[in-house]
Amino acid sequence: MPFFVDNFSWMAANTILAFVPVVLVVLLRQKMSRSLHLIVFFFWLLFLPNTIYLITDLQHVGAQLLQSPVGEQIILIFQYVTLAVLGVVTYVYSLEPVSTVLRKMRLREINKDYLYIVLNYIVASGVVLGKVQRTHSWYIFTEPLRVIADIIATITRTDLLIWIFLIGTIINVLFFLFRKYFPPLRNTKKSRVRK
Fold first, then answer.
1. H helix runs in the chain, sequence order
2. Cβ(123)–Cβ(44) under 8 Å?
3. What is the pLDDT of residues 20-68, one digit of tens each?
4. Spatial distance between the Cα atoms of 77 and 64, rounded to a whole number of angstroms
5. Computed over its alpha carbons, how large is the radius of gyration of the chain?
6. Quick check: 102 and 112 in contact, CB under 8 A?
7. Tens digits of per-residue pLDDT, 82-94?
8. CA dist list (Å): 101 to 28, 77, 97, 106, 118
């Protein structure tokens, strides 16, 4: 069976998980009680790493391309480019609640950027938990002790801390490159200058 057919099921599952924070962003825009708002925000934060996680699936493309005929290679490239684009778009879009909170805090733009950088490294930790430890978002409810053990195992291993740094750096580069296409995330001073 061609790789692109095999890829469909896991790519679809990962894409659905990536859209959970997008749906939660839409919910967060709605008027609701403070407690319900905090619950939705918690789930948003919990599922946020599933968005950018999609770019890590690019690790499979090289081996699949080498083992596929040219016609399938074109389909595989399209599949993986689509997956990576969805990862970046869902991630940057899903950061809108952070923008809203930071706007209410009335921080200087440079301070906001530092907070985004820190958040992006925290998200990278979640990506590494999912990619290496195979810790799923819902394990916080079904296997909380495993989640704690996985977090401890991750932050005590130098190789995984290096991965967090590398993935966090990639996330930061992607975020700062593409946030200008998402109006709530634009640097307001720069936006005013353009007008």
1. 3-28, 34-47, 49-52, 61-66, 70-94, 96-105, 109-131, 139-142, 144-155, 158-178, 188-194
2. no
3. 999 999 998 888 898 998 999 999 999 999 999 999 999 999 999 999 9
4. 10
5. 18
6. yes
7. 999 999 999 999 9
8. 11, 38, 6, 9, 15
